[in-house]
Amino acid sequence: MKLGDGVEQAIHCVAILAALPKDGLLPAAALAEFHGVSTSYLLKHLQTLSRAELVQSVPGPTGGYRLARAPEDITLLDIVLAVEGPEPAFRCKEIRQRGPNPLPGYMFKAPCQINRVMLRAEKAYREELRQVTIADLAAQVRTDDTEGLIEARGCAFFDAAMRHYAP
Amino acid sequence: MKLGDGVEQAIHCVAILAALPKDGLLPAAALAEFHGVSTSYLLKHLQTLSRAELVQSVPGPTGGYRLARAPEDITLLDIVLAVEGPEPAFRCKEIRQRGPNPLPGYMFKAPCQINRVMLRAEKAYREELRQVTIADLAAQVRTDDTEGLIEARGCAFFDAAMRHYAP
DNA sequence: GCTGCCCTACTCGGATAAAGGATGTCCGAGTATCTATGG
DNA sequence: CCATAGATACTCGGACATCCTTTATCCGAGTAGGGCAGC
User: Fold this and answer.
1) Domain CATH code at residue A22
2) Tally of domains within chain A
């Protein structure tokens, strides 16, 4: 039961991308430097997000990353599943069917109770994440940032690194 | 986001232990054979459960494992936390505070929104597991096992391997 | 002076090494049973 | 015949290799912009 650091990085990056204007564009190197993490490693996760069609990659010298959808349409669950993989954390190996003298398989047509409960718990977990969008997150940050300092830092950063997307 | 196989093994073992009589006792080798898993590896997890005081270990030639509490007092959450560790799956590294020109720490007295949401989701996950006891699980299995075949297999197995606990 | 072409430099993308944790194995400490011996 | 002491064999417990997933890195493919030559 451990989530990789990539999840946190990915979420923060998507949140940053959501904060810049419609045609904004940020290269991976800038995102990595801003968060103080390894560029090449962050690229890996950004590529994953790109394959999941959460962010869009623009190649070329003035390229970078931008959101592929509106912030309201990206949930935390989308990001977590993209980075960590969609399969559930608990995977029933059906060890109840193994052992020296296993009963025939049709005896176990009812799903393993343990598996059911574990998946139900995981469903609750995902449901919580599904209800939070990147837009919600941004709104919360704006509420907390009463003095506007965090936003100011972001603007300074954008000025230095941001590019414009010309479709 | 991946749970080790040890979790499944541990839960099944606790469920088996809950099914035998009050003074019943099963050695780890028997549990491993019944589930078709590595004995030494299962021992590792049984020791963990023992340290968490979910099961009780009895040394000696007629020793083995038994439950340390009533099945009603053991939840799935207890087992999962014992095996996987109590710390949350998502650990906020506060990368928002890192980077080239970080703002002073007091700016971030409000907890990271991302962290808050992730922990809330995990709380929901744990709450689901907390509400299911080993006794509930056993009751469900009995309901599904209309023909009593699974129970019969269990009895045959117990006859061969079970010992009695003399306090 | 303007236009078109080529070269360069910077971006993302996937394939490739290194590290950490999970998995699997081994040997040591302890105890109830069995055996043998003495009363 | 009974009790007791010792040896034995089987149990759990923790320390030790091994493997695989995760983490981190590097080099290659592609593209927009700038420079240069030609018109």
Assistant:
1) 1.10.10.10
2) 1
pLDDT tens for each residue of B92-149: 888 887 766 666 666 565 678 999 999 999 999 999 999 999 999 999 988 888 888 8
Name the token pair of B79. Answer: 């087992």
Q: Which residue range is the domain that position B14 belongs to? A: 5-86+134-164
* Residue A25: closest CA among A70, A68, A65: A65
Residue B75 within any structural domain of the chain = yes
Residue of B114, B134, B151 to mutate, testing the A interface (most A Cβ within 10 Å of its Cβ): B114
Under an 8 A CB cutoff, do B121 and A98 touch? no
CB-strand contact A98/C, under 7 Å: no
Residue B93: inside a domain, yes or no?
no
User: pLDDT category, A42, cuts 50, 70, 90?
Assistant: very high
CB–CB of A8 and B122 under 8 A? no
**What percentage of chain B reaches a pLDDT higher than 70?**
93
As a whole number of angstroms, the distance between CA A131 and CA B41 comes to 39
Closest residue in A to B151 (Cα–Cα)? A103
* Å between B55 CA and nearest CA of chain A: 18
Report how far Cα A153 is from the mean position of its chain's Cα atoms. Answer: 23
* pTM, two decimal places: 0.91
Q: Which three-class secondary structure string do you get for A36-58?
A: CCCHHHHHHHHHHHHHCCCEEEE
- Min Cα distance A74 → chain B (Å) is 14
pLDDT score at A111: 77
For residue A137, pLDDT beyond 70? yes
- Distance (Å) from the C-alpha of residue B89 to the closest C-alpha of chain A? 4
Residue A14 covered by a domain: yes
Interchain CB contact of B7 with A (< 8 Å): yes
Q: Is residue B156 part of a domain?
A: yes
Contact B62, B9 (CB under 8 A): no
